[in-house]
TrEMBL record:
<comment type="similarity">
    <text>Belongs to the SFH5 family.</text>
</comment>
<feature type="compositionally biased region" description="Basic and acidic residues">
    <location>
        <begin position="36"/>
        <end position="46"/>
    </location>
</feature>
<dbReference type="InterPro" id="IPR036273">
    <property type="entry name" value="CRAL/TRIO_N_dom_sf"/>
</dbReference>
<dbReference type="Pfam" id="PF00650">
    <property type="entry name" value="CRAL_TRIO"/>
</dbReference>
<protein>
    <recommendedName>
        <fullName>Phosphatidylinositol transfer protein SFH5</fullName>
    </recommendedName>
</protein>
<dbReference type="GO" id="GO:0017157">
    <property type="term" value="P:regulation of exocytosis"/>
</dbReference>
<dbReference type="GO" id="GO:0005829">
    <property type="term" value="C:cytosol"/>
</dbReference>
<keyword id="KW-0408">Iron</keyword>
<feature type="region of interest" description="Disordered">
    <location>
        <begin position="1"/>
        <end position="85"/>
    </location>
</feature>
<keyword id="KW-0479">Metal-binding</keyword>
<dbReference type="GO" id="GO:0046872">
    <property type="term" value="F:metal ion binding"/>
</dbReference>
<comment type="function">
    <text>Non-classical phosphatidylinositol (PtdIns) transfer protein (PITP), which exhibits PtdIns-binding/transfer activity in the absence of detectable PtdCho-binding/transfer activity. Regulates PtdIns(4,5)P2 homeostasis at the plasma membrane. Heme-binding protein that may play a role in organic oxidant-induced stress responses.</text>
</comment>
<keyword id="KW-0445">Lipid transport</keyword>
<dbReference type="InterPro" id="IPR042938">
    <property type="entry name" value="Sfh5"/>
</dbReference>
<dbReference type="InterPro" id="IPR001251">
    <property type="entry name" value="CRAL-TRIO_dom"/>
</dbReference>
<keyword id="KW-0492">Microsome</keyword>
<dbReference type="InterPro" id="IPR011074">
    <property type="entry name" value="CRAL/TRIO_N_dom"/>
</dbReference>
Length: 363
């Protein structure tokens, strides 16, 4: 994982000043080499025999030191220092590490944190926090520390082993991983696509499923952590940058059978809380987000919303009135034929989510 070099790095010390006196070619003159120089300089001009030795010009009374050799401005030590410091300051990634190593919780997204200069998974995580905050270190640091606080309190990794209510959450969410051809799932991010599916049409009772806000948020966090296991940042060997980041997932929200005009207050509260929790603690993990089976009236409101969101966010959101058109959205992807691998109800030819997908534990 690459660190961000400073824009103001100081390469090496500037070369020492070199004398430019005409005729000396940077070679020091020695006082006293011509003892009669001053005398000849004061005499009347006279005709000089070309065969006789010529007097030299006056010289300084003190010898000039030889010019110091120019320093190598591209020495390895200087280049390395320019990556990590600017006038003695730590690089952005190093600053995040300094803040994180003082926190009692040493894990994010299942990855034990370490020095990002030597640990690519940590570099990826820190770079995501920087990317989410447009490279502003203080904002990234604040979000990182708050995420560590939240993870220390919530213990999301333990939620992967928690038993959730089957009556409330069975069939509500899945994680699927698709690879090229018939190859099994691989750890190379360039060769797989990870999806998280939220099937809100499977909710039997809005009040029962969303009524216990903490329980629903914990289930949703468990689904997110399950998706992160499939992405496998912990096994990464290639760093990311502000422009290159394959460690992301596609999210699908299917609202088939859900009436937006009859949403309960508890469902709205649960949705609002999940948006906040995921936005605060899982930055730069969303590749694209599809909202399926949205009523026409909601499609209008999504169109209106486009006027108020950033271009960066806008390109990730895709409201669709029919879920069967989803497969058509994946013509050019990392995985050839990805659309055909999706379940039939989403326009593909693949296995259904219950057969292929993984989900939080229910009983």
């Amino acid at each position: 994982m690459s660190t961000q070099p400073s824009d103001n790095a100081e390469p090496g010390a500037a070369p020492a000043a070199v004398s430019t006196d005409a005729g000396n070619e940077n070679t020091p003159t020695v006082a006293g080499s011509e003892p009669d120089a001053a005398k000849h300089a004061q005499e009347e001009p006279k005709v000089v025999n070309p065969t006789e030795p010529q007097p030299t010009a006056p010289v300084d009374s003190e010898p000039k030191p030889a010019a110091a050799p120019a320093q190598d401005t591209d020495s390895p030590a200087d280049v390395k220092d320019s990556v990590s410091t600017t006038a003695g300051e730590l690089s952005p990634l190093a600053q995040l590490w300094k803040a994180a190593e003082g926190h009692p919780h040493f894990e994010i997204w299942g990855v034990p944190l370490s020095d990002p200069e030597r640990h690519i998974p940590t570099q990826i995580i820190f770079q995501k926090f920087l990317n989410a905050n447009d490279g502003q270190v203080e904002k990234a640091k604040d979000q990182l520390l708050k995420t560590l606080d939240w993870r220390q309190k919530t213990q999301p990794q333990q939620l992967l082993r928690k038993m959730f209510s089957k009556a409330k959450f069975d069939g509500l969410g899945y994680v699927t991983t698709y690879t090229a051809g018939d190859a099994p799932a691989v750890d190379e991010p360039e060769q797989k696509e990870v999806f998280t599916w939220n099937l809100y049409g499977s909710v039997k009772s809005l009040d029962e499923t969303f009524g216990n806000l903490q329980e629903f948020v914990e289930w949703r966090v468990a689904l997110m952590e399950l998706g992160l296991m499939e992405i496998n940042i912990g096994g990464a060997i290639k760093p990311i940058t502000a422009d290159y980041d394959p460690y992301k997932m596609t999210q699908v929200h299917d609202y088939k059978g859900i009436s937006f005009l009859r949403q309960t207050d508890v469902a709205k509260a649960a949705s609002k809380e999940c948006i906040k929790v995921l936005g605060d603690n899982y930055p730069e993990l969303l590749k694209e987000k599809f909202f399926l089976n949205i009523p026409a009236i909601m499609g209008f409101f999504y169109g209106l919303m486009k006027m108020f969101v950033s271009k960066k966010t806008l390109t990730k959101f895709h409201p669709m009135s029919s879920g069967t058109n989803l497969a058509k959205e994946f013509v050019n992807t990392k995985v050839d034929g990805l659309g055909d691998k999706l379940p039939a109800e989403y326009g593909g030819k693949g296995a259904d989510l219950k057969t292929l997908g993984k989900a939080p534990i229910v009983q």
